[in-house]
Amino acid sequence: MAHWIEPHPTGIYVRPANAWIDPSQPQERALVTHGHADHARGGHRHVWATRETLAIMALRYGTASGTAVGYDEEIRLGGVTIRYVPAGHVLGSAQIILDHAGERVVVTGDYKRRADPTCLPFEPVPCDIFVTEATFGLPVFRHPDTGSEMDRLLHALHANPDRCVLVGAYALGKAQRVICELRARGHHDPIYIHGALERMCALYQDLGVDMGQLRGATGVAAKDMRGAIVLAPPSALNDRWSRRLPDPIAAMASGWMRVRQRARQRNVELPLVISDHADWDELTDTIREVAPSETWITHGREEALLHWCMTHQYRARALALVGREDEEEG
Questions:
Q1: What backbone phi and psi angles, to 5 degrees, belong to 326?
Q2: Is the pLDDT of residue 326 over 90?
Q3: Nearest 5°: phi and psi at 69?
Q4: 127, 175, 219, 233: least buried by Cβ within 10 Å?
Q5: pLDDT tens digit string along 51-101?
Q6: Per-residue pLDDT tens over the stretch 142-193
Q7: Cα(51)–Cα(2) distance, rounded to whole angstroms?
Q8: What is the C-alpha separation between 17 and 100, in angstroms, rounded?
Q9: DSSP conformational letter for 253
Q10: pLDDT band at 2 (very low <50, low <70, confident <90, very high)
Q11: Residue 188, exposed/middle/buried by CB under 10 A (0-12, 13-18, 19+)?
Q12: Which residues pair with 75 in a beta bridge?
């Protein structure tokens, strides 16, 4: 089936279009699902992606050459009809739909099924081959309600007015989502952000995502951040930068916070299980919903999801793509 699409360690090659999907090495033609660095790399001669993903790539890599593809807009390359539909992962993220020779392939990139105020929701598309991530492809990963996790964050903040809550959140997608979720729950006070988050938050604002009043945390007196929420990259939770904050409650927003050992390793006092990836039930429910003839599994815990597919009479295979580290959640 679909001999015209070939998985390689460096990406998925669409032979009649002479194009690669999310290639890890520079290519002549790249179809990019979203802006995280394990999917979007610099150095390609030409890129097709959503307007938002191209803007993110320009910010991160200075990428100048690219064609913006709107959601549900069709393009054709070498006889392949290509369409981008929302993936629900981060702003601009897309599944790439490929139609050729009477067959349909859906390459999801990364995706989630939970509501996210910063991006459009995942759109299920029935297909012959479904290429799915498996970041949280183990039954132990069942994400709680996002609202309940945000309530825990706000409770910690209000219970400790002389401290601040320092939230570790990845710079692309997670930080902006946490901010918008807080705003949706009525927290309209200024939120302080680490300098490493400022450019991406500004880009989100430019692309129409309203995050309310944000302030740079660098140079602000500790007393002025008491009773405030501060966002920073996960790497900043335990470094010298955080020591100047007013007795911070260390929190982290990640699907990996389901694993208590990971929280302890990072000295996280308030683990928040908030993920931009599908959990186990969402992965398996999505496969049922799109009902593919074959499922290709990559980017994570391939073995467990492969076993689930086989036991539920879904033909499946695991792909060994290189460079697919879980950047966003790790």
A1: -85, 70
A2: no
A3: -115, 120
A4: 219
A5: 999 999 999 988 667 999 999 999 999 999 999 999 999 999 999 999 999
A6: 999 999 999 999 999 999 999 999 999 999 999 999 999 999 999 999 999 9
A7: 29
A8: 10
A9: E
A10: confident
A11: exposed
A12: 82
Between the CA of residue 12 and those of 134, 217, 321, what are the distances in Å? 16, 41, 9
What CA–CA distance (Å, rounded) separates 288 from 312? 10
Cα–Cα distance for residue pair 278/141, rounded to 1 Å = 9
Domains in the chain: boundaries: 5-140+277-318, 146-272
Please determine whether the domains at 5-140+277-318 and 146-272 fall in the same fold group of CATH. no
Find tokens 């610099």 and name the residue: 42
Residue the block writes with tokens 């880009």? 203
pLDDT for res 322: 61
For 42-51, what is the mean pLDDT?
A: 94
Three-state DSSP class for 175?
A: helix
DSSP lists the bridge partners of residue 134 as: 300
Helix (H, G, I), strand (E, B) or coil at 97: strand
> What is 146-272's CATH number, 1.20.1080, 3.40.50, 3.30.420, 2.60.40?
3.40.50
Residue 135: exposed, middle, or buried by beta-carbon count in 10 A (0-12, 13-18, 19+)? buried
SS3 of residue 41 by DSSP: coil
Q: Give CATH for domain 5-140+277-318.
A: 3.60.15.10
- Are 135 and 114 in contact by the 8 Å Cβ rule? The answer is no
CB atoms within 10 A of CB 125: 16
State mean pLDDT over 8-25.
95
Instruction: Retrieve residue 194's tokens.
Output: 């680490």
The string of DSSP letters for 181-201 reads HHHHTT--S-EEE-HHHHHHH
Handedness of CA 119, 41, 16, 318 (dihedral sign): negative
Is the pLDDT at 279 greater than 60, yes or no? yes
Q: Hunting for tokens 């979720």 — which residue is that?
A: 181
